[in-house]
Amino acid sequence: MSRLDLGVGLALMPGLIDELERVADLVDCLEVEPQTFWWETGDPDAPFRLDRDDVVGLTHRVDAVLVHGVTSPIGGSRRPGPFMVQLFAETAELLGARLASEHLAFNEACSDDHGSPATAATFSTAFFLPPRQTASGVEVAADAIHLFQAALSTPFSIETPVSYLRPRADEMDDGAYVAAVAERADCGILLDLHNIWANQRNGRQNAREYVDQLPLDRIWEVHLAGGFERHGYWLDAHSGGLHPELLALADDVLPRLPALRAVVYEILPEFVSQDGHDGLRCDLEAIQRLVAVSGRRRVATPAPHIAPRTPPPAPNHEPRDGPDSWEQALATLSIGRSADHAGQLGVELADDPGIELLRELVAAGRNGRVASSLPLTTQLLLTSLGVDGVDDTFADYAAATEPAMWGSDEGRRFAAWAQQRFVDHPSILAALRFDIAALDSVRTNHPATIEVEFEPLTFIASIHDGRSTDDVPTGRFRVTVG
Q1: What are 317-327's pLDDT values in tens digits?
Q2: Given 54, 272, 319, 337, which residue has the most CB atoms within 10 angstroms?
Q3: What share of the chain has pLDDT > 90, as a percent?
Q4: Is the dihedral of CA 302, 304, 310, 314 positive or negative?
Q5: CA 267 to CA 456: how far, in whole Å?
Q6: 475 pLDDT tier (thresholds 50, 70, 90)
Q7: Collapsing DSSP states into helix, strand and coil, what is residue 256?
Q8: C-beta separation of 376 from 460 below 8 A
Q9: Is-contact 33 68, C-beta < 8 A?
Q10: CA–CA separation, 264 vs 30, rounded Å?
Q11: Is the separation of the CB atoms in 110 and 324 below 8 Å?
């Protein structure tokens, strides 16, 4: 193992696989989400199975693979489930992953802040939220990291989180918190430079001060990405393009990292389609130049840790509200519930303007999961109700239900709710049955046969050409899906 031995990587998502041929000369390694290779089983105790054929197919395409988890973050008091950790480790092993990582964040909380975090009912935000940056927050994160380390034979890192909240007087500096977690857990750091630069733009710690507080020899991987502004915030959107200020930050930081192995570019497939193939190539070329220059420079002696503005609180001077209360309050507000359901800390957090942005992002994620898991239903709703009507429908759904972690579960949850909402709309009910049958077919890996009220091809054509569904011939038809 040597510095920058893994070179420049691309975070691979299913929609980017076809792009690999166009940029293969610029990609030295691939970072994949293990969940890409998981299929639903319907078994609550073992909800996924690993598709080994797909894994083997990928390993034949590249020389080096990294794995980056997106479902079991390690910044909260709810520990990752043993099954999920083991499946993550099994996937990493099968891929021959050189590095593994997860997000220093949380996406679940206890619904009762008076109960024990280990036994109270939980709910999901299906969105990464910033952890409690206190001494007790360090401990809960370290405990979760140890679960991954015990299962993995691959070095494990934590990704530096993004936060849209204002800094608080009762928390550690962003950099000091990440440093404390990494040292307490004896793990690596995945330094997402776009995340910490976005934090700086949004009023949190200066990115260079952040880096100065980190143990630089623990930084094994760096992420770069694009973003954009919304409501006065810079979003970690994984959009195309690398901001000149971010490139300047990377140019300063990369040569200082003595154990850096890979610099990975994150971009969502829809932005590649939007910006064109040349945009992806241009971004990867810029990163290759950064890495080449960094490799030629002498690595400076890592700077000593700079003391945070406020020393990390001692255990006996912890804030009144620990990680579980923080998670319950922030998660409750983020999914659109009122501060009345989030305790005193929730009342405080409700004054933070970042809460409104989090609510919008959580809602957008839910809408996207419904649309992708129920495509026929979504098209019909748009045709029947228009964009404003669909927005109102999704808002009513979100107000009545909690988010689901997985897209298919969100689709099923929406379908159960919509069957009551649209009980007098047989065309929408037929579309729901069709989409759910398709989800069931994927889960069982077998075709599903259903009865629908409208002949499928005519029904689908009516959506695409804008005709009223009242004009579609009625009748019951058997359809095989899958």
Answers
A1: 567 789 999 99
A2: 272
A3: 67
A4: positive
A5: 36
A6: very low
A7: helix
A8: yes
A9: yes
A10: 8
A11: yes
Amino acid at 404: A
Average pLDDT over residues 94-107: 97
- Specify which residues 67 forms β-bridges with: 32, 100
The residue ranges of every structural domain in the chain are 7-296, 374-481
**Non-local CB neighbours of 14 within 8 Å, separated by 6+ positions:** 36, 269
Question: Which residues have C-beta within 8 Å of that of residue 367, sequence separation ≥ 6?
Answer: 394
- Cα 248 to Cα 213: distance, rounded to the nearest angstrom: 19
Task: Residue 468: count other Cβ atoms within 10 Å of its Cβ.
Answer: 10
Amino acid identity at 430: A
pTM to 2 decimal places: 0.89
Instruction: Give Cα 129 distance to the centre of its chain.
Output: 10
Q: Whole-number mean pLDDT of the chain?
A: 87
CA separation for the pair 454, 108 (Å, rounded):
40
C-alpha span between 126 and 234 (Å, rounded): 21
- The DSSP annotation for 192-225 comes to EHHHHHHHHHTTS--HHHHHHTS-GGGEEEEEEE
The answer to whether 445 touches 452, Cβ cutoff 8 Å, is: no
Q: Are 400 and 393 in contact (CB under 8 A)?
A: no
Phi then psi for residue 237, to 5 deg, are -100, -10
Three-class SS of 41-58: CCCCCCCEEECHHHHHHH
Q: At the top level of CATH, which class does the domain 7-296 belong to?
A: alpha beta
Interatomic CA distance for residues 17 and 29, integer angstroms:
13
User: Which position has the token pair 């693979």?
Assistant: 65
User: How many other C-beta atoms are found inside a 10 Å radius of the C-beta of residue 276?
Assistant: 12
DSSP string, 158-193: EEPPP--SPP-TTS--HHHHHHHHHHHHT-EEEEEH
Query: Taking the alpha carbons of 88, 89, 90, 95 in that order, is the dihedral positive or negative?
Result: positive
State yes or no: pLDDT of 310 exceeds 70: no
* CA separation for the pair 161, 17 (Å, rounded): 27
Give how far Cα 97 sits from Cα of 142, 153, 168, 240, 462, Å: 22, 9, 38, 26, 48
Q: What type of residue sits at position 46?
A: A
State yes or no: pLDDT of 476 exceeds 70.
no
Cα(55)–Cα(91) distance, integer angstroms: 8
Reduced to 3 states (helix: H, G, I; strand: E, B; else coil), residue 154 is coil
Distance between CA 344 and CA 218 in Å, rounded? Answer: 37
Please enumerate, as own/partner, the contacts of 455-460 that have beta carbons within 8 Å and a separation of 24 or more. Answer: 459/427, 459/430, 459/431, 460/376
Is residue 193 within 8 A of residue 253, CB to CB? The reply is yes
